Amino acid sequence: xxxxxxxxxxxxxPQGGTxxxxxxxxxxxxxxxxxxxxxxxxxxxxxxxxxxxxxDVSHLEGLSTGLNCLTTGGIDVVLLDLGLPDSDGLDTFRxxxxxxxxxxxxxxxxxxxxxxxxxxxxxxxxDYLIKGHGETHTLVRAIRYAISGTAYRMHWKRLTxxxxxxxxxxxxxxxxxxxxxxx
Length: 183
What we know:
The chain is of the alpha/beta class. 43% of the residues lie in helices and 21% in strands.
């Protein structure tokens, strides 16, 4: 089943401001690739409770349809189940990264395998959540950190490139240029 739903924050905010001290909401375009409809419904309920974000969620049950959705662009973050009918394990993650290398990915799995978690993190996953282990409090936090962490890393890479370009273009002063008295 492929579904798309907009989850709006239950506390409407005045335009351009805040409501009862909470910051202005940002709409996060989230792609949920999950084959279990019950768990997908559970995730949607968690996201509805978020106070600081509104979510525009596209739920797809297979990797191939998820990869097609990523080609259109505009996705802010992916929640990815590693055990799908058409792909399993780290290969699932690698294929999503190959399709959308700049989109942050939070991995979801029923596999309580710490080595798989570490491999996914080493290969670029922003976070790794095991289904049934405290998602209510950690899922929205993981999404927020995934988005902000990816933006920070991209900004850092840009600054590093600029710094290297400036360094290459800098001409080291010679002794003669320091001493203008004797040309």
